[in-house]
Recover the amino acids of this structure.
């Protein structure tokens, strides 16, 4: 069977930190690796590069098209892609999956889509393919949200979640044509590696723990070592929570060193309390890369604000983590949340905290209620009729307490205090000295895009578009319910 997997263009590379991140569709590569031994012909097309979805459909003539939906901001793009596929091939079975589809599937319930996958795909997609190939009722395939003549119905979940070692290595060769275009921060090309999946914590702004019922699964040491050995020199570890199992993490570090693996650069994501308690882990992992960065969610600069998001980690842990990381020469790429309910004193508190503790490499994102999270349920009323593309954590979704104009001035000033401001302490020439000569055009392009974050008018222009979209949607709905209204 010919099967086409599509990674849509989310359209977020013009705003926020999107320009710095374009990584390979690792989930699709794992599902492809599960299907290839069964004799199917698999194509992965990344629509962030040319050509279009319709062109790929004409080239491959697929029986099934799978479309990934990783983030809420992609919902509308995914539906548009499904409709494009449907026009090009009316009889193709169209499946949508990915984290956002699992967390909140309602925006994907469109006539162009046949089914939505509500769990991991390594076992379930082969089961779906087998059912379609052999005339087995799709109601027997677990964790599908199916479009039927009587509406959308949900199948029972699987008895247990897939073992991550079911598929040892992703089919990376299927995206080889795009490899040079995958980048992260200063590094290009970049490979994405997953060593574990899930998170046991319960942050109110995050949907990962809800999707996986606070579960946490790990790949075997041997599989991870092989993955590191067969990938390139710059690695982004996609685990939601790296180093969560300290004994296993130490074992993995020793296995990588025994294999003689040393990378040019590695980026991992972890929690401040894990790092502050486990300095030995950072010491063990540091020799594995020349440059080693950690992405940390600092979230807020006060205990009061942290208590409101169920972070289960405080300011003390954040500062201890930064100290431990610096002791072992790790780079710290943190993130702080900016609450639309903030007053001016809250911004001043954040600026003082960042300056005092030398955290200028941090990013700053708006506290955004993402579907599938507790904060989304709490804010449903004021989220209606908003465009999904604005859920990128950089758009204002409603009027902030300070008013849009003053809030945008302070948010822009927050970014101007970061190292991304090429008019600040770190000049454009300083950035360019850190990359290879062939990567200078890429770095100039990325930094030019990010400078928009330093300008209040950027946020105000986008907010005006958001309000106009909402008003148009509301007017349209009013006209539909009251046809005689002029």
């Amino acid at each position: 069977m010919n099967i086409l997997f599509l990674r849509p263009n989310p359209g977020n590379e013009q705003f926020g930190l999107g320009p710095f991140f374009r990584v390979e569709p690792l989930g699709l590569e794992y599902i492809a690796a599960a299907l290839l031994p069964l004799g199917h012909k698999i194509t992965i097309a990344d629509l962030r590069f040319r050509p279009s979805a319709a062109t790929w459909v004409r080239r491959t003539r697929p029986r099934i098209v799978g479309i990934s939906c990783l983030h809420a901001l992609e919902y509308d793009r995914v539906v548009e892609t499904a409709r494009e596929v449907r026009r090009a091939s009316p009889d193709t079975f169209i499946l949508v999956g990915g984290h956002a589809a699992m967390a909140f599937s309602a925006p994907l319930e469109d006539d162009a889509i046949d089914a939505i996958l509500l769990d991991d795909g390594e076992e379930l997609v082969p089961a779906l393919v087998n059912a379609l190939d052999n005339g087995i009722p799709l109601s027997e395939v677990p964790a599908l949200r199916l479009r039927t003549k009587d509406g959308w119905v949900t199948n029972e979940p699987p008895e247990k979640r897939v073992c991550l070692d079911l598929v040892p290595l992703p089919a990376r060769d299927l995206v080889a044509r795009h490899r040079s275009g995958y980048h992260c921060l200063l590094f290009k090309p970049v490979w994405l590696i997953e060593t574990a999946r899930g998170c046991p914590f319960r942050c109110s702004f995050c949907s990962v723990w809800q999707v996986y019922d606070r579960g946490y699964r790990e790949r075997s040491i041997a599989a991870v070592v092989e993955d590191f050995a067969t990938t390139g020199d710059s690695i982004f570890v996609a685990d939601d929570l790296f180093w969560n199992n300290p004994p296993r993490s130490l074992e993995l570090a020793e296995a990588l060193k025994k294999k003689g693996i040393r990378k040019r650069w590695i980026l991992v994501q972890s929690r401040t309390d894990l790092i502050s308690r486990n300095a030995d882990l950072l010491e063990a992992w540091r020799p594995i890369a020349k440059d080693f960065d950690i992405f940390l969610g600092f979230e807020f600069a006060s205990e009061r604000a942290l208590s409101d998001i169920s972070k289960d980690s405080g300011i003390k842990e954040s500062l201890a983590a930064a100290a431990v990381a610096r002791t072992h020469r790790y780079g710290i790429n943190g993130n702080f949340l900016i609450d639309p309910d903030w007053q001016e004193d809250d911004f001043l508190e954040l600026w003082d905290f960042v300056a005092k503790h030398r955290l200028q490499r941090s990013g700053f994102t708006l506290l955004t209620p993402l579907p599938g999270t507790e904060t989304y349920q709490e804010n449903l009323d004021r989220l209606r009729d908003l465009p999904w593309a604005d859920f990128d954590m950089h758009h204002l979704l409603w009027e902030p307490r300070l008013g849009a104009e003053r809030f945008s001035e302070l948010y822009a000033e927050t970014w101007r205090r970061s190292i991304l401001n090429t008019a600040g302490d770190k000049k454009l020439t300083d950035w360019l000295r850190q990359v290879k000569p062939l990567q200078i055009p890429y770095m100039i392009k990325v930094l030019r895009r990010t400078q928009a974050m330093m300008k209040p008018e950027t946020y105000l222009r986008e907010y005006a578009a958001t309000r106009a979209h909402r008003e148009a949607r509301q007017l349209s709905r009013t006209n539909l319910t009251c046809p005689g209204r002029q």
